[in-house]
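subagent[fold] <- orchestrator: predict structure for attached chain, return tokens only, no commentary.
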Amino acid sequence: MLKKGKKMDEELLKIKQRRMLELQRQMLKKQAEGKEKREEEEVKEPTNQDYLNQIFIGRAWEIYRTAYAQYPQLLPQIEKQLVESIKTGKIKEKIDGAELFQFFRQIGLPVRLKTKIRYAEKGELKTLEEKIRSDLH
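subagent[fold] -> orchestrator:
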């Protein structure tokens, strides 16, 4: 009886050891896959948006998206040229919304923006519509 119990304990120990080895292999495999994935992400070429993020500041992205919505056929070509200029170092300075707006106007793309005129009265901002209404009443 004692020998039988000892054999079972040894078999259980062997099973546990095999299971531990299997789990270790699985963990190592997952770590290796994760490392490969991270290396792939690190090696990826920056996107056009990454390059534009380097130079766009302020409201530049708002102007860019508005222009893209109004000129969807032309903006990919302009984007390509902007990115190429950034890569080659022709554009090094930051570009804000006003500069980008002016650039689009210079190349013949009049970007139409939604504008609101607000009037400050007694520390309160009101649209012209609200101002006129309050003056009429």
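orchestrator: received. Logging for downstream: The first helix runs from residue 2 to 43. Residues 47 and 61 are 15 Å apart (CA to CA).
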